[in-house]
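4.2 Preliminary Data

To establish feasibility before requesting continued support, the project team ran the inverse folding procedure on a target of 541 residues. The structure was first converted into the token representation described in Section 3, and no sequence information of any kind was made available to the design step. The complete token record follows.
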């Protein structure tokens, strides 16, 4: 039993599990990756907000927190802006551009954003942290025939490949050596050996235009354009892995047929919920003012989708579901819990916004992806650093007056990156409490059952990690673990728990605390506080 517990009240919930020393999938550490987006709209500019004025350096605390995240893979820089801006805005001495400095970029919504933190700041930082790298490239113009396809692939993809991975003296296609020279003039002699290029971003938004321009042949055109971009990139460095974006099953099967192993991953994105204008119950509007704090909490932290018979969080993304057909692993290069009240509902709601609920909601996504680790090998939490959007892992003050700090999603990503196994274990959910979640709206779905306690077990040769969410609004829970099929553990272990205030505050005031515990060697029973994310770390005997 525990020598100390994380909850002061006697637990009123009990969840029991049986854990086996049997892997259901290998767990790739890149599932705890990040998207370090530099957006340009709605008051958010990403890492630009963390740059010390007059420099190209991140605030020391922001950089320290970034290192705490231990990002095994980093995607940078563009999301929606990707297909509307020039990558060369983010370097000095760009070939064909006058002057040494970097221009101000105009994003897809006509917002202005600076480029103080560009490729020559990001790349050495990522390499120092031993992070793999994903660089998205602009695809829309070539895909839709707005530019000559081969020229578009050269302009937006081959040039970037030459800048980051080209070598001096290498035989390169026409005029690409100038980009190698530019990198060297900017201070980097050797190539960066970037691992992955993602071709486009959320290319599904262009499907209607693609079909209009190539009626009945949109899948064929997509694969033709993808192949041209791959050829352009590989003309510089054939070792760059290709991540194909915006793929439905028809495109995926054609990619497999035409391009085969030239593609390394297929992409999906996973955001939910969105703006919540109102909740419905039983198909009828439910007054926002009649929702209790607990009602709102339970709706927000409930994952979507769930296994309707058990209430367990699961993944329901087409690219993942179709993996048995196309045979590619999946990279979810953007994901997060993303909801907010609409302007009419917000003043009526008893719980306006809870960053802690966001964190627990995101933890449910992460558990679902860990359960599908056989298909999902990369996942980039969106977004890493910011000043305004409440999906940031790290919140910064551009003036530097307020020190950078984690939002609860940052606490989550740091904890799971630091404490996880390399395989997901088979488990039996023997007796897991659930609750009904009757409300829907803004992407939130109603469920007859949601697991109150959500557990995923991972392990290494020496360690056992129990990743546990307690979604309860106000009840502590006993977690009862039968390890007979797993084998005995040492009686000393640790529990790391993330807690935070119910209502939103900036700084978020969320914290991760780690305590030593004493447990039974084959049947530990552990008490966890409500509204917490936890990792229990145990050692094999």
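Position-by-position output of the design step:
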């Amino acid at each position: 039993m525990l020598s100390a517990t994380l909850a002061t009240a006697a637990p009123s919930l009990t969840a029991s599990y049986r854990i086996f020393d049997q892997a259901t999938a290998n767990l790739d550490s890149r599932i705890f990756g990040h998207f370090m987006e530099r957006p340009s709209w709605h008051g958010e500019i990403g890492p630009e907000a963390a740059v010390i004025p007059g420099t190209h350096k991140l605030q020391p605390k922001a950089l320290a927190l970034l290192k705490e995240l231990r990002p095994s893979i980093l995607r940078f820089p563009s999301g929606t802006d990707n297909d509307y801006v020039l990558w060369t805005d983010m370097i000095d001495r760009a070939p064909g551009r006058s002057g040494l400095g970097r221009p101000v970029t105009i994003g897809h919504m006509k917002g202005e954003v600076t480029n103080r933190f560009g490729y020559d700041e990001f790349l050495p930082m990522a390499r120092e942290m031993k992070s793999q790298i994903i660089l998205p490239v602009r695809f829309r113009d070539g895909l839709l025939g707005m530019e000559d396809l081969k020229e578009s692939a050269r302009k937006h993809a081959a040039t970037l490949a030459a800048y980051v991975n080209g070598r001096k003296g290498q035989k390169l296609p026409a005029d690409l050596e100038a980009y190698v020279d530019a990198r060297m003039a900017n201070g980097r002699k050797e190539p960066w050996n970037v691992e992955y290029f993602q071709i486009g971003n959320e290319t599904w938004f262009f499907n209607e235009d693609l079909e209009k321009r190539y009626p009945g042949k949109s899948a064929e055109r997509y694969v033709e354009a993808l192949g041209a971009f791959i050829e352009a990139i590989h003309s510089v460095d054939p070792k760059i892995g290709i991540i194909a974006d915006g793929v439905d099953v028809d495109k995926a099967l054609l990619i497999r047929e035409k391009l085969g192993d030239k593609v390394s991953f297929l992409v999906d994105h996973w955001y939910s919920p969105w703006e919540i204008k109102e909740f419905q119950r039983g198909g009828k509007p439910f007054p926002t003012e009649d929702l209790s704090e607990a009602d709102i909490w339970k709706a927000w932290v409930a994952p979507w989708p769930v296994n309707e018979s058990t209430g367990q969080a699961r993944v329901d993304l087409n690219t993942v579901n179709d993996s048995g057909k196309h045979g590619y692993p999946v990279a979810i290069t953007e994901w997060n819990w993303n909801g907010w009240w609409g302007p009419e509902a917000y003043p009526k709601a008893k719980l306006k916004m809870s960053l802690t609920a966001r964190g627990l909601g995101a933890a449910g996504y992460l558990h679902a992806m860990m359960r599908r680790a056989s298909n999902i090998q990369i996942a980039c939490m969106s977004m890493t650093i910011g000043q305004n959007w409440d999906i940031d892992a790290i919140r910064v003050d551009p003036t530097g007056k307020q020190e950078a700090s984690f939002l609860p999603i940052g606490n989550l990503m740091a904890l799971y990156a630091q404490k996880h196994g390399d395989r997901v274990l088979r488990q039996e959910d023997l007796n897991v409490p659930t609750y009904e979640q009757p409300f829907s709206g803004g992407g939130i779905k109603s469920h007859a059952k949601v697991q109150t306690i959500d557990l995923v077990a991972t392990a290494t040769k020496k360690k056992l990690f129990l990743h546990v969410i307690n979604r309860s609004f106000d009840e502590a829970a006993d977690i009862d673990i039968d390890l007979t099929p797993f084998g005995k553990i040492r009686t000393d272990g640790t529990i790391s728990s993330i807690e935070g205030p119910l209502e939103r505050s900036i700084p978020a005031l969320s914290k991760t605390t780690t305590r030593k515990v004493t447990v039974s060697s084959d049947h530990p029973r552990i008490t966890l506080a409500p509204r917490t994310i936890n990792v229990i770390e145990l050692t094999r005997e």
